[in-house]
Amino acid sequence: MRSTQETYHEVAQRCSEYDCKHCRDRFTDLAGDSVSCLTCTHFADDEHCRLDLYDPIVRNL
Length: 61
What we know:
Layout: H1 5-14, H2 26-30, H3 54-59
């Protein structure tokens, strides 16, 4: 099941391991709207978190 863009954004905002694929400065990106699971290096092309962090975070939203 695919999540909404808003859910990906909220999960990424709460993820301690979020690592932006295209960002030079992690702290700058955390303040921006581009924070999303879709822009994280740990998020696979088939839309799952390689670190298995997505499900525990989304359950607590």
